[in-house]
Amino acid sequence: MRQAWILTLVIPALAACQPVPDARDPAPVCAAGQFAGLVGQPVAEAAVVPEPKRIIRPGDMITEDYRLDRTNVYLDAQDVITTLKCG
C-alpha cells in the first residue's frame, strides 16, 4: 500500500520534468512559396524542392495529415506541376 502511495507522488513529479518547448522557435514552414516558379514545369524539376515533399498526381490517394514543413507538389495528367502547397 505504501508503494502505491509513493507512486502517486512520484509519477506526477516526473511528468513535470518534461522540457517546455521554446516559444521563440519558429514553426517549420514548407517551401511552396519559394518554388512557385515551378508551376508549368515537368515533374523532374520538382527534384529541387527540399524534403519533406509529396508528389501528387490526379487520382492519387493521400493521407489527410497536415504537416507545416511538407510541400505538396500537385501534377496534371501530363506530369506537369500545377500547384505547390504546404501540407
Automatic annotation (TrEMBL):
Sorted alphabetically, which Pfam families does this protein's record hold? Inhibitor_I78
What InterPro entries does the record tag this protein with?
Prot_inh_I78
Q: What is this protein called?
A: Putative secreted protein
* Top-level taxonomic group: Bacteria
